[in-house]
Amino acid sequence: MIQTVQGLIPPEQLGFCHSHEHLFLAEGQPEKLNPALRIDDYTATLSELEMFQSLGGKAIVDAQPLGCGRMEKELVKVSSQTKTHIVASTGFHKLAFYPHNHWIRTFSMEELKEVFIHELTVGMYIGTDSHLPKEYINHKAGQIKTAIDEKRMKDSEKKWFIAAAQASIETSIPIMCHTETVEQGDYLTDLYIKLGVPPRNIIVCHLDRKLDNIGAHKKIAEKGCFVEYDTIGRFKYHDDELEVEMLKQMLEWGFADAILLGLDTTRQRLKSYGGEIGLNYIIENFIPLMHRRGISQKNIEKFMIKNPAIAFSKI
Length: 315
Ligand SMILES: [Zn+2]
Description:
CATH class: Alpha Beta
Strand content: 5-15%
CATH topology: TIM Barrel
Distance between the termini: 8 Å
Bound molecules: zinc ion
Number of strands: 11
Helix content: 40-55%
CATH architecture: Alpha-Beta Barrel
Shape: globular
Radius of gyration: 18 Å
Oligomer: single chain
Number of domains: 1
CATH superfamily: Metal-dependent hydrolases
């Protein structure tokens, strides 16, 4: 079963799914790092999702965890209003996303684990950007977002990762990993597997930001983890032609069942916020390009429907 904000659904009900988006992001610390990380206009997100729905979109994984701008009440509301399946995130982001005195920095491993498990089995906490996790709603998160960067990789303190791994093992819910280099992806998947997380419950994001070492993607997929590509239509990194070439290489190596796609949207890119890409982009632009470059309909259905149905289900 897949745990959406409205409850459990059988995997076959998930449908066409973007595996990494940001539907809402409250004002606060993330916006201080980058103004594009504020997505807090309910009506605008609603109309973006209505457009996605009108084109056949059915499901979205929202990758913002608690404590750094997740808008859990709005996720629940927009999901019920548009009948979109939304999977929300517990877990933690890069520590730069939290003020210096934030609880996520000071909680012990046990406390972090308890918070994550509560969000996955009882309900999501509210107000955690500025307050300790206490009040909650009766709607649960369905994945554990985690993030590694250069600093965390060198840091011997691994309490956040151990807490996430233990919460995943206890609940059978998948872990999603924000990574910034392929080396971090390799390191973090090894760490989680060593801690006992089944590889099938590990999803690695953003590996496609740089395409100079696709062999490293292969190595991660060979461990049995999912690779989630979300640098589609992000032209400051590379164009979509290169993205398709990379996908074709992964298909040639036999990893059709390991690939998930998303746009990792920000305010700057969402159409309803004045951006150019929009949640229509994969359906209206990228899928036609994949077809033109010879990727089969069967494989596209795997990326968008079959693989997410497996990746986000409890095992
Ligand atoms: Zn993201």
